[in-house]
Specification:
The structure is a single chain. This protein has 6 helices and 9 strands, in the order E-E-E-H-E-E-H-E-H-H-E-H-H-E-E. It has about 210 residues and is α/β, with parallel strands linked by helices. The relative contact order is 0.20.
Length: about 210
């Protein structure tokens, strides 16, 4: 089964209805909110003792293993493209994600997050730990809003390592992914700029009131 899924926990985002539906794909949204949709299958998740953003990261990184092929999309995007065409064009190996359009270095990404007040908790200590272990600068960075995965033991192991690494540092999953995927032969990175496209339309996060 081919699945595209998202997660929406806490009053952090609105669920966006796709403007284009691809036959043969199952659209799933995991959430703790009372959402309704004509397209997404809403899967209610009981509130647990985990902050909303961390819970969303858990579903992004870990809750795809029941499906042969999965496509993660952040709730900040509206789907406006044929998913079969996108998969055929950009999916390779076991794990595919877009290259970050601005930065290519986890250290630069970390400092940007600190300087802009985006989840600064733990980032400085995380970067220092990577420096101590001699992780190189400019070693690659993804934008994790779109992730395509194939269910293989190697990709499962990669994502298990990603979740473990994220829980040792900040919630900035791009930083932890850059660390655990360095020199991986199963990750395909492609060029795509989320800021200027009409395939997956980006809208900045906001807090619902």
């Amino acid at each position: 089964m081919k699945v595209i899924y998202t997660a929406l926990f806490g009053k952090y985002e609105e669920l966006k209805e796709p403007t284009l539906i691809t036959p043969g794909w199952h659209y799933i949204c995991f959430t703790d909110q009372p959402l309704k949709s004509h397209i997404w299958e809403i899967v209610p998740i009981p509130v647990i003792d985990m902050e909303a953003r961390r819970l969303a990261r858990f579903y992004k990184i870990m809750k795809w293993k029941a499906w042969e092929q999965s496509f993660w999309i952040d709730a900040s995007f509206t789907i406006n493209t044929n998913l079969d065409h996108w998969w055929a064009k950009y999916f390779k190996k076991g794990f595919s994600a877009a290259k970050h359009p601005i930065r290519n270095c986890l250290y630069e990404e970390g400092m940007h997050c600190i300087n802009t007040g985006r989840s600064p908790e733990g980032i400085a200590l995380q970067l220092e730990r990577y420096k101590t272990s001699m992780h190189p600068k400019n070693s690659g960075l993804i934008t994790s809003g779109l992730i395509m995965r194939e269910n293989t033991p190697a990709v499962i192991a990669l994502c298990n390592a990603w979740w473990s690494e994220l829980n040792q540092g900040s919630l900035r999953d791009q930083i932890s992914f850059a660390r655990i995927s360095y020199n991986s032969n199963m990750v395909h990175i492609y060029d795509w700029d989320y800021r200027n496209n009409n395939h997956f339309i980006y809208k900045k996060h906001f807090h619902l009131r």
